[in-house]
Structure formats: C-alpha cells, structure tokens
Specification:
Layout (H helix, E strand, L loop, with lengths): L3 H18 L7 H24 L4 H27 L6 H24 L1 H8 L19 H35 L10
Helix pairs in contact: 1-4, 1-6, 2-3, 2-6, 3-4, 3-5
C-alpha cells in the first residue's frame, strides 16, 4: 500500500491536466466532471474501508462491486467525452488505462495478502463477523493515513474540484450567452 496508493496520484493529475488542456468546460462540461467525481467515489469507498477496517468478505465484496461499477462508469465517461466533441488523445486514453487497471491491481495484491478472507468469501462466508464492518485491530500509522489524506486532497479533491468549478461557471455563462460554448478553432 505504501507504493500502490501514491502511484494513483500521478495519473490522476495527468488526467486532470488532459481535461484542462482539452477545455472540458466548453465541451462535455459539468456532466463529465460529475462522472469523474462518481468514479472517485467508486474507488474512494473501498479504499477507505481497506485503510480503516478489517478486510473480510464484506469489504472484499464491496471492492468487487466497486470495481465493476468503476469500469462501467469509465465507459460512460469516455462516451460522454467523445459524444460532446471533446478530443480524447491517445495519451489520455493510456492514462485512463492505467487508472482503470489500478483498482484491479490493488484488489489482486490485497487478495494475495488476505487469501484466507478471499477463500472464506468463495466458500460462502457463513460467520456473522464475515459481514460486519470492524475497525482494524492493527491500525495503520496516523502519519501514513494523514499523508494519504493530504495526497487525496492535493492530487484529487483540489484539481477535480477546480475542474467542476470551471465547468459549472462556464455552464452558467452558456445560459446567459448561447454562443459562449463554441470552441475556438486552432
């Protein structure tokens, strides 16, 4: 987790930069920006559970469902972008590939580390504790959790909050001026 989590921040910033470069606010706008927030929630919920709670069949099931939802939302994201006329470059597609594969890689690594819990899930997880959310007995260091939180704020919340702000304010401008959404020719 010490390498995998920070590895998410760089492609997240690269993706945000591609949205900025392609002027998302005058193409797919608020709709695509909100889809990005949905994908972050789909990754953030299971990630928070793994950081703070004991890994058990409930957590593993949540991870699996979140990965499936994230993959479906990623398809919706790209179709929304392309349908709006926003250019999705080859580089941005490669960044997306990395961002899409990270949850699967993280879940695979977790499955190797917590193979007993995976086996319990596959065998039906009949115990009551298998389906209860419990705080970690051996908690992660507070400094590590603070660093992850700071990384999430700096590399995800601030940039994508700025993106949503740009999109919402541009949408307001389009309502006032119907020609405000024209993308200038290059």
């Amino acid at each position: 987790m010490y390498g995998l989590l920070p590895a998410w921040f760089i492609p997240s910033l690269l993706d945000w930069n591609q949205h900025r470069r392609s002027r998302i606010e005058v193409t797919s706008g608020t709709r695509e920006s909100l889809i990005h927030l949905l994908m972050m929630a789909e990754v953030g919920l299971p990630l928070t559970m793994v950081l703070l709670c004991e890994v058990n069949p409930l957590v593993l099931s949540t991870i699996a469902a979140s990965i499936a939802a994230h993959e479906a939302t990623a398809l919706w994201d790209v179709s929304t972008a392309e349908g709006s006329g926003r250019e999705v470059t080859t580089f941005e597609q490669h960044v997306h590939s990395f961002l899409e594969s990270m949850p699967i890689m993280a879940a695979s690594a977790l499955g190797c580390l917590r193979w007993r819990q995976v086996r319990e899930l596959l065998e039906g997880a009949r115990s009551r504790d298998a389906w209860r959310l419990r705080w970690k007995r051996n908690r992660l260091p507070g400094g590590y959790l603070a660093a992850v939180g700071a990384g999430v704020v700096a590399a995800i919340a601030v940039p994508y909050g700025e993106e949503l702000y740009r999109c919402v304010t541009k949408t307001d401008a389009r309502c006032a001026d119907p020609h405000a959404d024209r993308v200038p020719k290059r």
